[in-house]
Amino acid sequence: MKPVYSKIGEISGNVITVSASNVRYGELAVVSSDHGKSLAEVIRIDGGKVYLQVFQGSSGVSTSDEVRFLGHYMNISFSDDLLGRIFDGTGTPRDQSPKLMEHLIETGGPSANPINRIIPSRMIHTRIPMIDMFNSLVESQKISIFTTPGEPYNELLARVALQASVDVIVLGGMGLRYDDYLFFKHTFESKGALSRSVMFVHTAADPVVESIAVPDISLAVAEKFALDGKKVLVLLTDMTNFCDALKEIAITMEQVPSNRGYPGDLYSQLASRYEKAVDFEEAGSITILSVTTMPGNDVTHPVPDNTGYITEGQYYLDNGRIEPFGSLSRLKQLVNKDTREDHRPLMDGMIRLYADYQETLEKKAMGFKMTDWDNSLLKYGQLFEDGLMDLSVDISLEEALDRGWEILARCFDPEATGLKSDLIQKFWPEGVAADE
Amino acid sequence: MKGNIGFVKAVNGNMVSVEFDCRVKQNEVAYVIVGELRLKSEVVRITNDHADLQVFDSTRGIMTGDEVEFTGELLSVELGPGLLGNVYDGLQNPLYEMSESYGYFLEKGVTLPALPKDVKWEFLPTVKEGERVEKGDCLGTVMEGLIKHRIMVPFKLSESYEVANIVVQGEYTISDIIATLRDDRGREFPLTMSFNWPVKRAINFYEERLAPEEPLITRIRIIDTLFPVSKGGTYCIPGPFGSGKTVLQQITSRNAMADIVIIAACGERAGEVVETIREFPEIIDPRTGNPLMERTIIICNTSSMPVAAREASVYTAVTLAEYYRQMGLDVLLLADSTSRWAQAMRERSGRLEEIPGEEAFPAYLETLISGFYERAGMVRLKDGSTGSVTIGGTISPAGGNFEEPVTQATLKVVGTFHALSRDRSDARRYPAIEPLESWSTYKGIIDAKHREWINKLLTKSYEIEQMMKVIGEEGTSLNDYITFLKGDLFDSVYLQQNAFDEVDAATPEDRQKFVFEMLFHILHGNFSLLKDKEEARHFAHHLRQCFLDLNSAQWGSEQFERITKNIQESVEKYMDKDSGLSRLLLRSSFVDTIIDSSARRLKKAKTILKEDIEAETDDETGI
User: DSSP per residue over A373-402, as a string?
Assistant: First the structure.
């Protein structure tokens, strides 16, 4: 039994210091105060001084409260009993069921050996053309939805989760509004998905620091399921809250901030979580779909910026639509070569034309005379937005491709599309005239 | 030995502060001992009786009082046969062996030998007993795949030696003694085929450093034609996320005409390396007939691997590159991404509580970056042969803004700048190198005047395009409009290249020269016969279509020729007959290249040539 320390030196932000010896870096402790017990983690050791990050927040902690070190690191019980359960950010049950104590696994384990990863090759069909056709989602991908508060990102997340054919869904909620928490719970329940889901939910009402543990716990559980051969989809919403919690701790610890107050290791912190996405040789896989809300819709803000460099693409959700510009699935090449031969060229061609349409829109807004070509583009843009971009469109990939050709045929001559002749010969729809 | 031990006093992230009372060397390797584990670390600062160590592993579990063992050795890599085709982490641990011994994960505190100990190499001695040698001299060779691997006198032996003993030709492992050297004082040095060298010290003994003049063909058109890279040169590729940096590096690693390619995946996604690891053993290098992996070494310290080893990974890679350069080979080092390396330094600097420079990067950032790129170069070795290290580094600027410290520090020291742009990648114009921003100081494969002319055309075309946005298409003159279309045509059919098309993915030098000349003449031409903008646009679309089809036609195939003819005919409709294209097509360079590239069609090409020349001669005599 480790000794109990009852002399807390400093309390600053959500970090407390205590004089203690024989404490390991990263070890957990329990801080007992008048307001109950809270988990805390060792984040720095300096001689005999130990810095602890208190997950329930330091509010109400007094200098003579007890700190008991647990001798182990952050862990979570793992078994199939997790399925259907809901926990808070540190793994305490949020539902009425009992606490699980068996088969404890450590969170934040080592990184997978790149040699043991395999090239992702299975597409996840979502029946959203902007995803399936233009930026296919691939099993074991890590991809984020870049968006702004108020957009229907959690709805999109839930829709993809329910549509995807995966064995286990792990939801990690950080700073989730209570309504959103209930939305996920009810949607999963009503669609029968709760029995294959585990939820770690930190709501906006909980202490901010507690959200720091959510990605690690969610991913540790996901990793175990994947090693058991399961296909796991991890939903993390919203990672900006996680980053803000990191920022808070870093500033409390007086670290030199690098950019807008965020710590210099933000990239590494995010990467060590996102890199858990994996497709194991001879075992299961982890796909991570996260949400990153961009303060001020600014993609150069440190959080989306660093995320963008780490994830394998992003879906840019703006005005209720997934915008083709700014959205990118870096793994799409791995799957869209095996779908239909026209998939890739059609996708590129349509995006190029959509870019031209955007330019024409600008010209139009400035009051220039529209040429025939401009008019074709305007018509094209409209058809494209209604037929493919609208989030209510719910069609398969095949249908989306056919619709793409039809839209082109209604607007252009074959040669104006810049598509290769043999494809045009094969796929150009007959009888759809480019009506004026 | 008690003298080499210290004790942990403080832990902060991956930095550990150690109390010692022995001799400690800056940048020496030390091991933090946590129970059974030995965590490799490097001394980065010494203040009186405290040393700050950065630990190349997770520091979880370290506590005050843990023992630290100082080794007295600088961070080094093992050099010798067996490096090629291997995948290493930043500290040269072989990842295949790691996987065999430890399974799916990179376990903490593990070190494995970098070179295979049991492989037998056929050693062919090239020196005799009694000869004088010094560091870097060749003692013999082994065949490492297709590379003649020189077994050299270890670089740290700084005197002149007499070969006291050398083994006969035969099979040896890298731990067998293959030679013994004797210095003037009679001391003997038994040598194996491998030796260590500290990664942060440049291998710099050669006769002279040459100017990088010979182009390094990457078979990427926009690079070779407009913004070339030289053997022994340096280049950087900054770009916001999603602009295709890594894809560009991958294509380069595949297609570049270098003897050896070293890929340093530094702090980027593991997934990117996985593609290379899985695909390269399958892809056959057409020049050698062997898998690409045989000329490749991957140093892989991906983003979730320990941050401190990121910095090491870049140096490990460049040291291996220099080692092979000493054998007279052309080595291409691709570092992706140098920003992650800089960020690792920033993290360390922050934990050391150094006064931060711009964006919290350390003040010595520039020195380190230029020091790294300066390790590139084309050199003449003692035996007269030349070898080169070419370094291409990607940069991931925060927010895609090139005004940040890493990009700026790199631009000062590189010879070529490939600026990737989000606008181009959004419009799917790949590779998304922005021609108006990029530059190169090297001589490429295309006549400098033509290169210049095309650059001007692209600028002009862009200006007209911008102007059209303001004054509208109707306010633009037909001539300007045609210039705009010309620039656009060159961009879409030449600068853009489809990496997924079997043929288009890699354009050999002679094909580039030919298609460029052809386009140059078309673009140079005066299209006075075009009536209006509508017709001009139609014509441009038609030409684009033809060239796109041409891009995916086999070089020298029937189809290639047919499309070329087709283009010629269409152009003639609107262009003066004498304007050069038809003549160009008959010029010997065209026919020569066709013949070169396609021996089986040799006969046919000659016949065509003969007929055409006869026809032309007839014409001329007619006049």
Answer: HHHHHHHHHHHHIIIIIBTT----HHHHHH
